[in-house]
Design a protein that fits this description.
alpha/beta; 2-enoyl-CoA Hydratase, Chain A, domain 1; Lyase 2-enoyl-coa Hydratase, Chain  A, domain 2; 12 helices; binds hexanoyl-coenzyme A; Enoyl-CoA_hydra/iso; EC 4.2.1.17; ClpP/crotonase-like_dom_sf; enoyl-CoA hydratase; fatty acid metabolism
Length: 258
Amino acid sequence: MAYENIIAEKKGAVGVITLNRPKALNALSAGLIADLGAALDDFESDAEIGCILVTGSEKAFAAGADIKEMAGFSYMDAYKADFITRGWERLAQCRKPVIAAVAGYALGGGCEIAMMCDFILAADTAKFGQPEITIGTIPGAGGTQRLTRFVGKSKAMEMCLTGRMMDAEEAERAGLVSRIIPAAELMDEAMKTAERIAGMSKPAVMMAKESVNRAYETTLAEGVRFERRLFHSTFATADQKEGMAAFIEKRKPAFRDE
Ligand code: HXC
C-alpha cells in the first residue's frame, strides 16, 4: 500500500517501514503517525509477516514530533486530541516483534518511537536524545518513563533536564541499544536479524516478547509465574514438537506457526 509519509514494503516474511519525510528529518507529524499505525495494522494482520523493521534515513531516524505542527497548540487542543497518546502507542501495542534500525538522529518523539520497538539496532552514526526541555516542553510519548527503565535514573534525568544527546557507544554502554553496526551495514544486518526472528515459530516469538515485556510491568515473582504458564503452554503447540524433534533428528525445523 502507498503512504504519503512512510514507505511500507513486504520483504519475504519481514515488513519494513521506512519513515519518509526527508525534508523535515522525518519529523513525526500526525499524518506520519497515522500512516505508521495503518502499516502496522496491515503487517499485524498478514499471517506471512513474522517480524517488522522500522527505520529512517541515513541522517535521521526521526528528529521528534513535528514542532511546526504543534507549536500553536492550546492546552485544549492537546487535551481533546489526547495528544500524543492516541496513535503513537500503536507501536508499543504491536504483538509481533518490531526492531528499530536507527541511523542519525533519534530525538524527542523519535527516541520514544525507537524505545517502543522491542529492541534497537544502532548505526555508529546514531544519536539519541530527549531535547524537549530546550523548546520549553517535556517528553510526552513515554520518554521519561522508558528511557529511565533503559538507562537508569541518573542518565535519563541528565538527558531530560539538559537535552544532551548520547552517541551510539554511550547508548550501547547504557543498555539503550542492543548492538552497534557500521552505518553502511545497518540495513543488511537488521534484515538478517529480522529474517532470523521471522523464521522461528511465530506463536513462540509472540510469547517470548509478551513474557520479556512483563518484566517491566510486574514483580519478579509474578513475572516468573507468568513466564512459567506461557512456557507450559508451548508444550501444547505443534511447533514445540517439531522444534525438538528436528533437534534430535539433526535437521532444520519446519515450523507451522501452530
Ligand atoms: C519539524 C523539523 C524538526 C522537528 C528538524 N526539522 N526537526 N521540523 N519538527 N522536530 C526540520 C527543520 O526545521 C529544517 O526544515 C529541516 O528539518 C532540517 O533541519 P535542520 O535543523 O536545518 O538540520 P540540522 O542543522 O542538521 O540539525 C538537525 C537537528 C535539528 C539537530 C536534528 O533539526 C533539531 O534540533 N531538530 C529538533 C529536535 C527536537 O527538538 N526534537 C524534539 C521535538 S519535541 P527547514 O524547512 O527549516 O529546512 C518532541 C516532543 C515529543 O519530540 C512529545 C511526544 C511525542
